[in-house]
Amino acid sequence: MVSQPSTRRFPVLLLIGASLTFGVAVATQSAEYAENQWWGPGEEHTIGDTLEFTNDYGRLRLINTGELINTAGHPFFEPLGENGRACVTCHQPSDAMSLSVKTIRAQWDATDGNDPLFAAIDGSNCPSLPQGEEASHSLLLTKGLFRIPRPWPPKAADGSVIEPEFDLEVVSDPTGCNLDPEYGMFSDDPAVSVFRRPRPVANMKYLLTLPNGVTPHEYFMYNDKSLLPTDPETGEFVSVQLMSDGRLPTLRGQAGDASSTHLEMIAELSEEELRQIEEFERSIYVAQGFSNQAGELGGPGTPPGLGPEAMRDGPPGELGNNPVNRVFGTFNMWLHQRGDGEELTSQEEFQASVARGADVFFDKRFFIQDVGVYNDKGLGNPFKRSCASGCHNTVLAGMDLAPGFMDLGLNNWPWNQRDDLPLFKATCHDDAVPQSYLGRVIYTHDPGRALVTGRCSDIGASMTQQMRGLAARAPYFMGGEADTLREMVDFYDRRFNIRYSEQEKQDLVNFMSVL
Amino acid sequence: MRFGSLGPWLALGALSVAVPASAQQHVSFVTCPVAQDTGDRSDVCFFVRHEGERYGVSSPPDWGNPQLGHKLLVEGVVSEDGRECGGVEIEGRASVLPELSSECDEIAPATPEILALELGRRPDITEAQRAMILADPASSLQIMRLPALPVPEVALGRTETIYFPFERDRASGPDAMLMLELARLAEATSDVAISVRAFRGATLLDNGEILEEREDMARQRGEKIVGILEGLGAPEGSIDLEIVSEVEEPTGRADWQSRRAELRVSTTR
To answer: Does the beta-carbon distance from B143 to A318 stay under 8 Å?
Structure first.
């Protein structure tokens, strides 16, 4: 068996390719920040063609397909709001344009909790808590979770109130925010506070392209055969892969919302700022570029789906769930590199483990059962598929192309029960279609999509995520349930009673570590 | 969902001795589905046990497969010689009932007899495809789409009908394609008028009970269709929606046809 990589972290920022000429990033970081590859708001860095950042498993590589970017003055990197944050605060290049809890912890230690990252509004468990104390920021520090206050009852994009199909009670409120007189559900501006991880802002073409080849047609949601939303500015149909609850389907919409909520910006982003942010986000591709144990990822002789170059060049919005084109392409060249009796090098041994993991991911079927807004799509309950042919079928990106809101069990009882998150009791009205496998009374830590649609059947559902750059951005899942790749595998094994062998689990971990 | 009765004369049927239905007989009953495991490398299929017989359940494509955790309304005709999921085929419709029924939880293991039927198998990679990938690993990332659904032919003045599962407003994939083509036809027609008539249904079960859909189902179906047609480009104000909330008297023969919507695109010129 191949062991997990060491957890040693390399405190060096590597700039390669064209960006080698512009070594501003290292030069401008203050001494105490150089340890953790942190890019602070307003700092000057240069993004050329390629950047690399170390992580526990090797190096993440970031590709910029646009013009050379100087972050000074760029709206993605400038603190535009009242709290000193920029977009980059929560979408760090070193963390696959997301934010790992390791980085968060390091930033707390480096600034004694005074970095804008820990802004009271959503970087603490509740703004009313005493700021500066670790306990007030425990969800961010331990699970990388930001507070997301959603209006209750839900509101449509035009501000009109959506009559929810369910009543919501607070069963427990460990953060205090849902019963808080100023921020809670019974305040003057009633809101439900849920806690979620920031998603990677990279490889965007895979999240924004309409799903090709998913029946019946790319304009329809596969699930209930309603129409996909349209871009409010262009009127064109848009995918809903961008956010975990699908509430904002465009980059411009998301940027505008994030500037007023996460950055506490009072003015609206200008047209030029929106254009620059969108252009930047569409230009960035990330993936693990080097594995400490497998070596270079991408290039001749390596699996064709690895490295950010594959993301840049690959076809977006395509299904990879048939035996010929597999989600991340073939890994067979790593499977049998020596003849019988010949000893494998440790690198070859690890590569073989990755290839076996890819096969398990693609081929090993199990009963996918009782997944709300998934098994009831018409697929049947149970549905017997593999990871790749079930929910993680988008070529090179690995989320559900369908697009796939689903309640995997991470947000709702009984599959996941957490003491650190708020717990709600949702009671669905008699005339509502019940949640397919939990019925009309549901205990949930995060109603998810239902906080957007108001539907009982959507309670706990969220959008599947892309699988690239995983090595750089633990913890995993929307609520940060899995601290490690192994914990992610263990969750699935437990949830679906797959009974992976120890070898298969390790192979899956190694496979995901090179994505 | 509401249960009613056509009266004692119909209920008498339920007193008769349970025997398997004969070929070409109409059946209508509610029961738990059973998921049949078909092996390590194949999909599950579903069957029901009813009056001592094993029936495979089938529906049109994308109608919606049975679900454990829910009872199944089976309406159809017993096939003469068709087989489905190791049982006698019932040609018709199988609707997943929305309320939870936790007692429906059986997964039948793949026995040698079932494995021999090679159910649910999908094409595996061919040797030629394997060789192609070996020669050019990048070909493992080529675009390979499922065949697109056929584009239905639509015509001005012709009534098209969409049928729904029990207490659902979810049309099938082919129905979605039909709406897409109707919206395109409407968009291309001057002085267009679109008529949408939405119904709710009722089913007479073999045991004499009547299963009636929720009262708002017709409205729910109709409004969803109007939203889809408008979203696909049907001119605003061109759609006349008629909600037919009165249920037709069920007969026990193809009552699934009562759960429907009728769509017609025409021109006022």
So the answer is: yes
Integer Rg of chain A from CA: 22
- From chain A, the residues in CB contact with B67 under 8 A are 375-376, 380-381, 436
A393 in reach of chain B (CB within 8 A): no
Domain contains A166: yes
Q: What are the chain A neighbours of B175 within 8 Å (beta carbons)?
A: 225
> ipTM exceeding 0.85?
yes
Domains of chain B: 12-117 (2.40.50), 159-267 (3.30.1330.60)
Nearest Cβ partner of B35 from A318, A332, A382? A382
Tell if the CB–CB gap between B67 and A224 is shorter than 8 Å: no
How many angstroms separate the CA of residue B138 from the nearest CA in chain A?
Answer: 5
Q: Does A23 touch chain B (CB under 8 A)?
A: no
Residue of A488, A485, A493, A453 lying closest to A166 (CA atoms):
A453
The Cα-based distances of A331 to A344, B49, B240 in angstroms read 17, 45, 56
Kindly state the tokens that stand for A286: 């990330």
* Distance of alpha carbon B155 from the chain centroid: 24
State pLDDT tens for residues A100-127: 999 999 999 999 999 999 999 999 999 9
| Strands of the sheet with B159-163, listed across from one edge | B159-163, B260-267, B192-199, B239-244
Q: Is residue A19 part of a domain?
A: no
Measured between CA atoms, how close is A90 to chain B, in angstroms? 32
Instruction: Give dist(CA A190, CA A153) in Å, integer.
Output: 8
Tens-place pLDDT, residues A182-240: 999 999 999 999 999 999 999 999 999 999 888 788 899 888 899 999 999 999 999 99
3-class SS shares of chain A: helix, strand, coil, % to 5: 25, 15, 55
Q: What is the mean pLDDT of residues A336-357?
A: 95
Residue A442 in domain: yes
Amino acid residing at A312: R
Segment B77-81 mean pLDDT? 92
Residues forming beta bridges with residue B55, ordered by sequence position: B48, B88
Across the interface, of B40, B98, B228, the residue whose CB is closest to A433 is B98
Tell me the chain B residues in contact with residue A213 when contact means C-beta distances shorter than 8 Å: 145-146, 148
pTM above 0.90, yes or no: yes
Q: What is the distance between the alpha carbons of residues B269 and B258, in angstroms, rounded to a whole number? A: 32
Q: Per-residue pLDDT tens for A129-163?
A: 999 999 999 999 999 999 999 999 999 988 999 99
What percentage of residues in chain B have a pLDDT greater than 90? 81
Quick check: helix, strand or coil at residue A245?
coil
Which chain A residues in 202-221 lie under 8 Å from chain B, judged by CB atoms? 212-213, 215-217, 219-220
A424 occurs within a structural domain: yes
Q: CB distance from A309 to chain B under 8 Å?
A: no
Q: Is the pLDDT of residue A74 over 90?
A: yes
Residue A429: which residues within 8 A CB-CB, separation 6 or more? Answer: A165, A166, A167, A456
Q: Which domain holds residue A439?
A: 146-193+412-458
Residue A489's H or E segment, with its range, is helix A485-495
CA distance, residue A213 to nearest chain B CA (Å): 5
pLDDT higher than threshold 50 for residue A11: no
pLDDT in tens, A242-255: 999 999 999 999 99
Nearest neighbour of A329 by CB, restricted to B124, B140, B228: B140
Indicate which of B44, B46, B140, B221 best probes the interface with A, i.e. most A CBs within 10 Å of its own CB. B140
Q: How far apart are the C-alpha atoms of B54 and A252, rounded to whole Å?
A: 55
Q: List the beta strands (DSSP E) in A48-197.
A: 50-55, 58-64, 69-70, 146-151, 166-172, 191-196
The answer to whether the CB of A11 falls within 8 A of the CB of A54 is: yes
The H-assigned helical ranges of A343-483 are 346-363, 387-390, 450-453
